[in-house]
């Protein structure tokens, strides 16, 4: 992959620095496989997804975030940062006015043509899309490198790795629980085993009843769920405390998950964003599946 270097003149102009500013090149490879080099750690960062915002703060660079997108609600201080639209439609004029020195883009979530426009204008775009637990930890470390906050980023990455490893050890060899995870309601959607959420299910000793489907986020109908007859159903919802998606399944008392009261709610932000909070969400997943095992009776 070609090495992309933002010209010194562009960086200095964007940052409002003079030619005597202290410099020190920093480089990192993004999740698109491209190496990005900056002549100095980024002091002004635009995070173009809620997950990118969380990862940047986790990397110790929260004070450098000058732009976010809608629903960037964690940590709480991120809510005070100017929004430049949604992750699917960016207000480029507003974004440029905030003079970012680094743009953190979402490979499959941001409009590729808008990210390409930013690059054509000389802005450095670092593409992220963690697809594994290690990918989450690595993203934190790489963002910390680009922001010059390695000490904080390395600590958080180590905490996440150690926590996930502890869960894997604790739930190794447990009795499997057939699970349906609902990621959306209309249309009805789930995840396969290659999805990061699917990997959480496996870590906790769950068997994803739709894990072998080809698409990362397959669409389903109710009949498919009824035929699969999962022992547990886990879902988020439209909001952090909205359990309506689970209430829907109560109309099918013949489902094993309903009969055993194994309808479990997990706040979506804890599991649907590839960030360190996935550790907390994974602990909840594992606890819910342990409850399902306990309800099997003799």
Automatic annotation (TrEMBL):
| Domain Fe/B12 periplasmic-binding: start-end pairs | 44-297
- Pfam families from the entry? Peripla_BP_2
Q: Which PROSITE patterns match?
A: FE_B12_PBP (PS50983)
| Keywords, sorted A to Z | Signal
Report the leader peptide range: 1-24
Against NCBIfam families, the record matches this protein to: TroA_like
The record's section on PANTHER family has: MOLYBDATE-BINDING PROTEIN MOLA, VITAMIN B12-BINDING PROTEIN
What is the name listed in the Swiss-Prot or TrEMBL entry for this protein? Cobalamin-binding protein
């Amino acid at each position: 992959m070609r090495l992309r270097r933002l010209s010194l003149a562009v960086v200095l102009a964007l940052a409002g620095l003079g030619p005597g500013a202290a410099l020190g090149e920093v480089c990192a490879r993004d999740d698109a496989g491209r190496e990005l080099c900056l002549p100095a750690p980024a002091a002004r960062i635009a995070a173009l997804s809620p997950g990118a915002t969380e990862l940047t703060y986790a990397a110790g660079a929260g004070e450098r975030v000058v732009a976010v997108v809608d629903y960037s609600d964690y940590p709480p201080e991120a809510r005070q940062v100017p929004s430049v639209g949604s992750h699917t439609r960016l207000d480029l004029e507003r974004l440029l006015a905030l003079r970012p020195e680094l743009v953190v883009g979402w490979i499959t979530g941001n409009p590729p043509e808008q990210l390409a426009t930013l690059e054509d204008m000389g802005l450095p775009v670092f593409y992220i899309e963690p697809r594994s637990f290690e990918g989450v930890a690595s993203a934190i470390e790489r963002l910390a490198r680009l922001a010059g906050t390695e000490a904080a980023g390395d600590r958080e990455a180590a905490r996440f790795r150690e926590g996930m490893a502890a869960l894997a050890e604790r739930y190794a060899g447990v009795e499997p629980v057939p699970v349906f995870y609902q990621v959306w309601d209309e249309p009805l959607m789930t995840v396969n085993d290659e999805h990061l959420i699917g990997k959480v299910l496996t870590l906790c000793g769950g068997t994803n009843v739709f894990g072998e489907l080809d698409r990362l986020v397959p669409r389903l109908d109710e009949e498919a769920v009824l035929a699969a007859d999962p022992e547990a159903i886990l879902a988020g919802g439209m909001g952090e405390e909205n359990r309506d998606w689970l209430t829907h399944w109560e109309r099918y008392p013949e489902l094993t998950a309903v009969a055993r009261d194994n309808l479990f709610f997990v706040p979506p932000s804890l599991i649907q964003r590839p960030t360190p909070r996935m550790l907390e969400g994974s602990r909840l997943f594992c606890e819910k599946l342990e409850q399902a095992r306990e309800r099997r009776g003799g």
